[in-house]
Amino acid sequence: MSLQGKVAIVTGSGRGLGLAYAQELARQGAAVVINDVDEQAAADAVATIESEGGRATAVVAPVGPTETAQKLLAAAVETFGGVDILVTNAGVLRDKTLWKMTDDDFDTVIGVHLRGTFTCVREVATHLREAGKPGRIICIGSPTGQRGNFGQTNYAAAKAGIVGMVRTWALELKKAGITANAVIPVAATAMTSTIPYFAAAVEASERGEAMPAFFRHDLGFGTSEDVAGVIAYLASDDAAHITGQAIGVGGDRIQLWSHPEPVVTAYHEGGWSTEALQAEAHELFDAQLQSVGESFPPLPEELQR
């Protein structure tokens, strides 16, 4: 596999997961447009890639507005001659319970994650279609968007919306040879570093040591670098047949998430009145009610704090 001659835009790539994606794309041969709101982080990311023999440039701007999407595309075209790959990774958190979440908390997260994904994909997809070029759209989701999570109304809505958009774009862009997929990473990040359950894994990673096998294998929880290979693979020609998918990855584990499908189907002649449901709903639904949120097994004794 090689990405030689390809050009990638990676939003939110000054540090963390986004930087790992950008570095792996560059390692595979792609030129990369780094994006971050932190000028120093963006400059450092470019320097890191260049020090390893790669090519990179930076656009310092907040993702969300159409103007930022236009700047990212312009940087790719003017610096490297075009674009082939877009990874939408930029994000922020404003975690609060429903009754404490403000309009600004909600709008900020939706604006960066959901609107930012939309504006960047629209800009790049339009360019690729007009140029008659195939391309790769890779959008970053989250287990929270798949399952929900306490205190993350805004984040769950955004990440679920991203996967919904990806499935739609896979249909709309298929004829143009442009794939659209979502990646659901499970990795040590600023968010997981504050959760006591993951403390042993995060601390091992910070010391440069391998995470305990319980986290890497049983939970599928790992480092940013563990996710980067999936990003590079989906960006390659070898993955031209994969589109509209949600792929989970972390630690030693990879998963293909299913699309939502009905688990119960029943019919009632004349339709389902309140009385009909009162008579039959318990039998129909109770044994098949779906769980919400993620549940984790107890930590092994040696990993407990």
Automatic annotation (TrEMBL):
Pfam families, per the entry: adh_short (PF00106)
SMART domains associated with the record: PKS_KR
Family: Belongs to the short-chain dehydrogenases/reductases (SDR) family.
InterPro entries referenced in this protein's UniProt entry, alphabetically: KR_dom, NAD(P)-bd_dom_sf, Peroxisomal_Beta-Oxidation, Sc_DH/Rdtase_CS, SDR_fam
Protein name: SDR family oxidoreductase
All residue ranges annotated as the Ketoreductase domain in the record: 6-189
Superkingdom to which the source organism belongs: Bacteria
The keyword Membrane belongs to this UniProt entry's keyword annotation: no
Keywords: Oxidoreductase
A molecular-function term among this protein's GO annotations: oxidoreductase activity
Species of the source: Microbacterium schleiferi
